[in-house]
């Protein structure tokens, strides 16, 4: 483990997780390969995807991102050097967490990823129609079979997370080691509080998604500006809010002090939060990567963290 890598169960992950949602969507295979190559060259080792990426795109059916990553792994022959995280439960044809669904989904993901194991396997959304013991037993079977190394949860309530962890301990089943919450400077209540408390109490590593609020926290979305991006609708909803304006001002102040990009500061704030192991951010082009990878080299002062805390409250 390098000095900047953090433990995540038995895994060791770099300070930035590269989001794979854009692969096979806004980035074609050649662009995706270039981004993946640059990310690894920059010291990154933690790639995040899901079987459902990018089923929302007309003409796609899901699995496109995993296929791109699988082709890249096969061509670079570097499988053992990277930590691959994917998710189960949201693909239209394989929705939910019934044991048979999990079993079919993992095999399909392994085929697309062109590998025989997944490092970190998330339940993408909780499925309250299934008892936690049922899906945890299915996930435990995958760990015992060597198909999955560690398991994690995303989009789950504090109560169900606590219930899942208690069940794993009681029954001797594989246990969640990480949590992927929606968390960023303009969306703090989606994690802070009860959910973060459960993670802290049980030693779970948080890997926040929407770390840059669909690009808003890069600073490129300002009142009166037009940005040509597939994700602009998600970012624009923050532009005319009081919190959005306060956060951008605070990001600008801290970024100027460090000659850094606002995106780097936003990720550094997340990285400094209790339980957070590695925020997730995606890059459509190689040019977008340096500001993301720089998170490992930007320690914020207590005063800067307080400024950002107060602006985002």
Topology of helices and strands:
Blueprint: E1 6-8, E2 11-13, E3 17-19, H1 29-41, E4 46-48, H2 64-76, E5 83-88, E6 90-91, E7 94-95, H3 99-113, E8 118-123, H4 132-144, E9 148-154, H5 158-171, E10 176-180, H6 194-202, E11 205-206, H7 232-236, H8 242-258, H9 262-271, E12 280-281, H10 289-293, H11 302-312
Parallel strand pairs: 3-4, 3-12, 4-5, 5-8, 8-9, 9-10, 10-11
Antiparallel strand pairs: 1-2, 6-7
Helix pairs in contact: 2-3, 3-4, 5-6, 8-9, 8-11
Provide an overview of this structure:
The chain is α/β, with parallel strands linked by helices and 313 residues long. Helices cover 40% and strands 14% of the residues. It has an 8-stranded parallel beta sheet, with helices on one face. The two termini are 35 Å apart. The model has no long low-confidence stretch (mean pLDDT 96).
